[in-house]
Amino acid sequence: MRELKLRVIKNGEIVAFERLHEGSWQWCKAKNGSPNNRWQFGVSYYVDSKREQYTGLKDKNSVEIYEGDIVAVDEYKRKEPTLYTVFWNKRESAFKGINKLNEEVGILKDYTSEHTTIVGNIHENPELLEGR
To answer: What is the 8-class DSSP label of residue 23?
Structure first.
């Protein structure tokens, strides 16, 4: 079963993480965009914030991939990696990616972690989305 984990965003900054661990919710503050691993019981106190879900996948550097991440995918027979923004597709109940041409791919099934690298996220690196 995939680990249920959320990234908490406030004012465009990753401020905390929440997870369901052994049947209880826990949270910790973020340090440099990653959990500081000082988990506390309960959910974070960031009420007026956005939460993005962990996909259950990691990139080729073993970094967890969340909604809102921008990933570079080495696609078959292309010279340059293609950038995709990871999002949850409610209609298909699946995490997907969308590129600058608004083409969607099924991130979970179409690419393996060895072909994917996180290059940023929509909050801290919006310049990667220019031209969309």
So the answer is: T
